[in-house]
């Protein structure tokens, strides 16, 4: 008999298709198999089991005895057809799900109230943006991709239904319950976003449920606590509130949730929730709009669902036409009430059975005909995939909205001319916003907390007076705009970033009108803060559009687009790189750390202008006390040649201060009467000058009468107890000449070599004389020499009329925002952030920390053409991106494209060297400084202390490795023998080229 009923039900369904929309999921199911399964299940069900299908209860995902006893009672007594879990963690919810499904004879529908994904309810899962932020995104295909990912995660959790999307059109700025849950105020835009989300969910087989029908957006009360009223006429409802739901239904999606709202235009019965109204649920939703999917009530335990005491809310909801009773306050009592109403004829038995059959059909559609328990092993890793991380980041990046930009101040430019401060209102200093700002420039950070005293607030504003640009992050709605802030906006270049509901901006109207720029980030999550900072500095372009109007300030649709001008920070997938293959880097580094090839390091990879890998490993030294962090600064050693000296050389070349065919003696006249007088600049750059590789200048400062015998020995003995390198031991019982070396700074002794060691200023003459007297090898033959770059530095200083370190600071590093990049870092930064190099017990007799490791550079006061530059990976990447951009960065031109191309693309016709840069050796054999997969176009440099960088114009790629392998001794050569740097480089190419 029931087979005949199902057949008739299906025929009615088919015949009414012209007036009604059959959901896509239903149409896609194998009808014969579905009806067979439904028929067999229905016939085998008891009367109570059938009634129980109508109930979906809320449960805590806790496995404690008391909670499980309560849930088992619902399964055994109410025979519940579904369950909606409250907040918890994934593994526990999965375990409880498995236990309940095992106990239930009929598999249950498991639902999620996940408007912004699993993280709305489950800790330890990917945090996606809320709907209003998504409403700012122009590319709706990203919303669909987001829906797909939420669906994938739901499947991993054994979830079949997501109570999303929220299709409420939020047109009321005082709405206390919808707000950020809405996609915006434009009905069609809300529909577009909601449909994109539903398309992603249902495309992967997860039932979507739009809510809160007929529209909760224009209320100023919360249905959790009362019954809100919507006093619009039918014409307005049709054009605004109902429009997204109509489009959702007509596009064939499966679920609708009815809201606890009083809407007189739809049902004149006073204070009657539409969720309990047959005129709304049956006549409007199901008949007029043709909805044939599952109709859910909003949670029946909410105050807005309250009816007269004599009426049972579950019975009333079924009479109205709802299919599934969500979260009744008293499931056992409501089950009995529904059973009584059926027996008394209050509820029509055939109508209720039709609902039960529909529920079973959707259980089949959800795959419950082939139920499998949730696999808990590895669940967290399967939920939190690299793709999910990329998608969450991408959604945030695309949503950040620039609402005001006077004078195109954003992205910020001319960093060298502005002192920048960051003020956080309602959050502490060091938050994610300020951290990201500090990656772009030296930013002084301040905060005003909720409990700050008037004196503390006054002190902050007084300190801000000395800054030119104030970047103000507003992280709370509980601190009002102040007079001091309005005055600050009048005097300074103020850039706002709001991490709040957009409507809150109206509370800051006076200072917003005076501000230079206003960024809307919508939420205070770490990702929102990071990408807002990136928009301000040009790490990403501003692309978002405001989804709601901010009264008296900005209209919906406001959004100023900008260009990306600086390096940004994103997930590897953003540039098509494999996160899993990039993870190989960590295993290579760990290999090096375990074998003590170096105490710690930084590794950075950037592609297409995006930093996709930026990690710190290990410690400053083997004692394991101070971990390496992103702001840790390393001695670049010979990498200084290409990251520092070469920049200055290129700048001088741009200004026509020399030509490549000029003789070095034209600029260092001391060489004119030597065998080096005819050496050409290009020969120095190509390392084909014939100059000796290095000169131990320190020997000229040693008192030869203070010791007998040799300084060096091939073996350790009583006279030579100190190991110098892999093959050499040295003595350290000698003295320095007192007329050349002093233990304190005094007139004439101003060249600082190390702590407590000052060199006489005349020593610079000794250095040039040593170079002049040095042996000259074969010109035109490749022989790497530090002396080449020492002479190039002298040339630059002669031609530009200023010290090279000052030139580089003024013309490059300060403009780039590379504030960790400097010579003699102890002059400008705390020792605590500088990574130590060697414990030098030979020349300087101390642990070197902040003093250049290279002796030749040290005896020039730390500023040399061959070494001396300190930096971290983030800052070095800015210099390298300038090269890759052919002389531009941050929207500013530093070098002409012609000069940049000449120096980065030229290669010696007789060796692998470029103009100042190193390059791969032909065939990428053991003699090559690069990995075997690096193309011939790569250029860069290595450093003796354990550093390297490589720039690949073919793949728009940067690779940086910084370590202090010489700590505590330069004798440790495991970094090279283990091929750590080249192995990492090859891993990068495998990650960006699919393993090839």
Automatic annotation (TrEMBL):
GO biological process, any: carbohydrate metabolic process
Known catalytic reactions: Hydrolysis of terminal non-reducing N-acetyl-D-hexosamine residues in N-acetyl-beta-D-hexosaminides
Lineage top rank: taxon: Bacteria
Domain Glycoside hydrolase family 3 N-terminal: 48-360
Protein name: beta-N-acetylhexosaminidase
Classification via PANTHER family: BETA-HEXOSAMINIDASE, BETA-HEXOSAMINIDASE-RELATED
Molecular function via GO: beta-N-acetylhexosaminidase activity
Location of the Beta-lactamase-related domain: 586-971
Keyword vocabulary terms for this entry: Glycosidase, Hydrolase, Signal
EC category: hydrolase
Organism: Parabacteroides acidifaciens
Stated family: Belongs to the glycosyl hydrolase 3 family.
Signal peptide: 1-19
Annotated EC: 3.2.1.52
InterPro entries attached to this UniProt entry: Beta-lactam-related (IPR001466), Beta-lactam/transpept-like (IPR012338), GH (IPR017853), Glyco_hydro_3_C_sf (IPR036881), Glyco_hydro_3_N (IPR001764), Glyco_hydro_3_N_sf (IPR036962), NagZ_Beta-hexosaminidase (IPR050226)
């Amino acid at each position: 008999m029931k087979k005949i009923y199902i057949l008739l039900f299906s025929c009615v369904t088919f015949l009414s298709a012209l007036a009604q929309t059959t959901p896509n999921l239903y149409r896609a199911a194998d009808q014969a198999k579905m009806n067979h399964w439904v028929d067999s299940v229905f016939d085998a069900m008891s009367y109570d089991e059938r009634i129980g299908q109508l109930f979906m209860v809320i449960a805590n995902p806790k496995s404690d005895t008391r909670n499980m006893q309560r849930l088992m009672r619902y399964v055994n007594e109410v025979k519940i057809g579904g369950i909606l879990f409250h907040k918890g963690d994934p593994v526990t919810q999965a375990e409880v799900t498995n236990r309940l499904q095992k106990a239930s004879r009929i598999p249950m529908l498991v639902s999620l109230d996940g408007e912004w994904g699993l993280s709305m309810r489950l800790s330890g899962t990917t945090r996606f943006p809320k709907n209003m932020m998504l409403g700012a995104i122009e590319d709706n295909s990203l919303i669909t991709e987001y829906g797909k990912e939420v669906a994938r995660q739901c499947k991993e959790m054994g979830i079949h239904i997501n109570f999303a999307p929220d299709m409420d059109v939020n047109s009321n700025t005082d709405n206390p319950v919808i707000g950020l849950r809405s996609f915006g105020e434009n009905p069609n835009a809300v529909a577009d976003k909601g449909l994109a989300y539903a398309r992603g969910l249902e495309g992967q087989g997860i039932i979507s449920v739009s809510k809160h029908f007929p529209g909760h957006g224009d209320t100023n009360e919360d249905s959790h606590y009362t019954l809100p009223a919507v006093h619009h006429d039918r014409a307005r409802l049709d054009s605004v509130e109902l429009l997204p739901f109509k489009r959702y239904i007509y596009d064939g999606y499966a679920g609708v949730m009815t809201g606890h709202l009083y809407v007189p235009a739809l049902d004149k019965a006073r204070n009657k929730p539409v969720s309990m109204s047959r005129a709304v649920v049956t006549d409007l939703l199901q008949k007029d709009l043709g909805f044939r999917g599952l109709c859910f009530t909003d949670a029946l335990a909410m105050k807005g669902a309250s009816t007269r005491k004599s009426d049972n809310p579950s019975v009333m909801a079924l009479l109205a036409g709802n299919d599934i009773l969500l979260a009744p306050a008293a499931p056992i009592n409501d089950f009995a009430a529904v059973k009584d109403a059926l027996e008394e004829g209050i509820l029509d038995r055939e109508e209720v059975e039709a609902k039960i059959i529909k529920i079973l059909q959707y259980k089949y559609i959800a795959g419950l005909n082939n139920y499998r328990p949730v696999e808990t092993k590895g669940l967290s890793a399967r939920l939190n995939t690299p793709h999910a991380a990329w998608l969450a980041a991408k959604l945030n990046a695309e949503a950040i909205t620039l609402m005001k930009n006077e004078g195109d101040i954003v992205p910020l430019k001319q960093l060298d001319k502005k002192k920048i401060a960051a003020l956080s209102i309602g959050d502490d200093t060091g938050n994610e916003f300020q951290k990201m700002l500090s990656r772009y420039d030296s930013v002084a950070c301040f905060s005003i907390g909720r409990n700050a005293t008037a004196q503390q607030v006054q002190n902050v504003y007084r300190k801000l007076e000395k800054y030119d640009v104030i970047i103000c992050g507003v992280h709370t709605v509980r601190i009002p705009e102040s007079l001091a802030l309005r005055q600050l906006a009048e005097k300074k270049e103020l850039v706002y970033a709001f991490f709040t509901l957009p409507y809150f901006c109206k509370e800051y109207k006076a200072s917003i009108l005076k501000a230079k720029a206003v960024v809307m980030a919508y939420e205070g999550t770490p990702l929102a803060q990071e990408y807002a900072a990136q928009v301000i500095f040009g790490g990403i372009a501003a692309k978002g559009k405001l989804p709601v109007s901010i009264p008296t300030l900005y209209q919906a649709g406001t959004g100023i687009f900008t260009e990306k001008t600086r390096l940004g920070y994103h997930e590897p997938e953003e540039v098509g790189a494999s996160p899993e293959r990039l993870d190989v880097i960590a295993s290579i580094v760990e290999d090096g750390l375990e074998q003590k090839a170096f105490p710690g390091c930084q590794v950075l990879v950037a592609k297409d202008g995006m930093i996709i890998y930026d990690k710190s490993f290990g410690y400053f030294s083997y004692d394991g006390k101070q971990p390496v962090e992103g702001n840790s600064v390393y001695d670049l050693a010979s990498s200084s040649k290409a990251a520092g000296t070469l920049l200055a050389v290129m700048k001088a070349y741009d200004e026509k201060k020399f030509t490549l065919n000029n003789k070095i003696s034209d600029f260092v006249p001391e060489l004119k009467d030597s065998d080096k007088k005819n050496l050409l600049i290009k020969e120095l750059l190509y390392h084909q000058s014939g100059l000796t590789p290095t000169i131990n200048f320190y020997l000229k400062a040693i008192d030869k009468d203070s010791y007998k015998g040799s300084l060096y020995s091939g073996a350790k003995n009583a006279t030579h107890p100190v190991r110098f390198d892999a093959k050499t031991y040295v003595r350290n019982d000698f003295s320095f000449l007192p007329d050349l070396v002093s233990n304190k700074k005094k007139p004439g002794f101003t060249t600082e070599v190390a702590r407590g060691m000052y060199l006489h200023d005349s020593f610079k003459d000794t250095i040039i004389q040593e170079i002049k007297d040095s042996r000259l090898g074969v010109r035109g033959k490749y022989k790497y020499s530090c002396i080449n770059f020492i002479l190039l530095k002298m040339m630059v200083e002669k031609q530009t009329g200023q010290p090279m370190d000052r030139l580089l600071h003024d013309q490059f590093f300060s403009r780039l925002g590379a504030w960790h990049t400097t010579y003699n870092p102890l002059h400008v930064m705390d020792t605590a952030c500088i990574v130590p190099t060697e414990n030098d017990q030979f020349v300087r007799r101390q642990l070197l920390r902040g003093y250049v490791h290279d002796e030749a550079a040290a005896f020039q006061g730390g500023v040399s053409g061959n070494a001396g530059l300190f930096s971290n990976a983030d800052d070095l990447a800015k210099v390298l991106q300038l090269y890759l951009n052919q002389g531009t960065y941050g929207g500013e031109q530093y070098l002409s494209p012609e000069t940049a191309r000449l120096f980065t693309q030229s290669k010696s016709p007789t060796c692998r060297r470029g103009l100042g840069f190193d390059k791969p050796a032909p065939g990428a054999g053991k003699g090559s400084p690069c990995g075997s997969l690096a193309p011939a176009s790569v250029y860069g440099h290595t450093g003796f202390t354990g550093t390297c960088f490589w720039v690949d114009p073919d793949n728009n790629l940067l690779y940086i490795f910084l370590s202090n392998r010489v700590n505590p001794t330069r004798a440790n050569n495991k970094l090279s023998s283990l091929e750590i740097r080249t192995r990492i480089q090859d891993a990068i190419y495998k990650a960006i080229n699919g393993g090839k």
